[in-house]
Write a structure and sequence with these properties.
8 helices; alpha+beta; eight-stranded antiparallel sheet; 8 strands; about 25% strand
Length: about 240
Amino acid sequence: MTTVGTATLDDITRLRGLVEKELEGCQNLQAAAQRFSELLFEELVDSAVLLRVFATASFTQLPEMERGFAVRLSQERGFEAELRPSTTVVTLLGTRGRRASWNERRLSKRHLAIPLVRTSFIKTIPMVSRLMSEMGTGVAWVEKQHNNIVVKTMGKMASVLHVDDAREATTADGFKVVPDQDFVSANGVHTVVGLAGAYLNGTVVAVIVFTDERAPAERVNKFMPLINAYKVATMKNVMAGRIFA
């Protein structure tokens, strides 16, 4: 398998087995997320530009560096007073891309730890927020159209998001689905794929793949089993609260 658009069911089945095997020995969710990002990027190397894995955690669960990032971000956006110990934070746990600086999550300037506080702020990160919100719908096998974002869900088990054209896609509120259009233009990003799943304790994981190909939605939907494989391999760590190294 080298691209999202050319992946077959046999490719997905093989990769699912590889994910479960490779992630089984990881000691925490962050280690598993980084390994998963590497495995999937290597499989999609001919079209993947950047691949990132996020997960939700409470503010109090964050290590010092991530907690400081969340505080600074809230200060910059003017909602520091609304940050609580229980605030849900979307945290970047794994990253792999074509540039060396994209291969170390702590170098992220915008996405290391995003507090989900204000709706107005969350709307500025449409892809991540959309995936996270879909995990709370509880609607089984429903396909939804949200302007240029197509999401296919399987209850709270898994969700697949497809953005056909990252340059043009906007939300109903007028935000770009991929806010950083400089990143899109500079790297020829076209189709964007999102995978998400929820654990029994409410933790949500989301994987976003930026590609330079145009991959149809029916091809993207085949990747849904991978998020379930990731959840199976990391369930013990998540339920035990082993999120960070």
